[in-house]
Amino acid sequence: MNKIMLLVLLTIIMIAVAVPFIIRSLLWNRVLKQLHNGHYDKVLTMLNSKAFTLFFKEYDRNWNTLRVYLAQGNNRKIEEQTRKLLDSRLTNAQAYQIASQTFFYFLDRENRDVCERLLAHIEKSAGEEELLYDQMLFRIMIEKKSEDIAGMEALLEKKEAEKIKKDQKQDQQVQIGILQYLLGLQYSYQKNRRQMELYLNKARVNLKGTPYHKKVKQLLNKA
Fold it and tell me: Within a domain: residue 156?
């Protein structure tokens, strides 16, 4: 093979590799633009188009469809799409991506069946600290157990003692509020109204402006 033929062959190979990459980048930039503008229906149409079917893998299309449903807050579609993904053939990395991103959503809705499936995938891939925390959340929010009070109080004490930057103060306040809410939940299972109200009243202050503020108020009103 002479030098000219070799050069032509290399050029063809480079084009064959570059063109799909360029097209994927262009398509994805269009999706990001529509997402930024809140045009979720247009994004869903694009993800199911022939162009996306040709240039993106099935998992990528299904995963990003789920992300759109999460952004929309479409509860029925979120569960349907999550189950669809979990029923498909997944690598451990893909399964963990789905589980880690949706576990708290289904915990919040007390969906035991989906949480059990997600936690099983988390157990395969998560680090020890993350796994222990997620297992503890499952016991508290799904199984309605109160065996983690001591551990939760230790986490709360540690979080309250953390020294943080000024611009991180609000995030820390919410994290403290979540721990206080979880402690209040556990004391409610024990029918310990005094301790429950102690932690929930603190959580109500720290979680003001978040979805959990309403949950705290509802729990206090039931007391």
Answer: yes
Per-residue pLDDT of the chain (223 residues; tens, 9 = 90+): 566 665 555 555 554 444 455 656 666 777 667 677 777 888 788 888 887 787 778 998 899 899 999 988 889 999 999 999 999 999 999 999 999 999 999 999 999 999 999 999 999 999 999 999 999 999 999 999 999 999 999 999 998 888 877 778 888 999 999 999 999 999 999 999 999 999 999 999 999 999 889 889 988 887 6
Give the chain's domain count.
1
169: domain range?
145-223
Asked if residue 108 belongs to a domain, the reply is: no
In SS3 terms, the chain reads as CCHHHHHHHHHHHHHHHHHHHHHHHHHHHHHHHHHHCCCHHHHHHHHCCHHHHHHCCHHHHHHHHHHHHHHHCCHHHHHHHHHHHHCCCCCHHHHHHHHHHHHHHHHHCCCHHHHHHHHHHHHHHCCHHHHHHHHHHHHHHCCCCCCCHHHHHHHHHHHHHCCCCHHHHHHHHHHHHHHHHHHHHHHHHCCCHHHHHHHHHHHHHHCCCCHHHHHHHHHHHHC
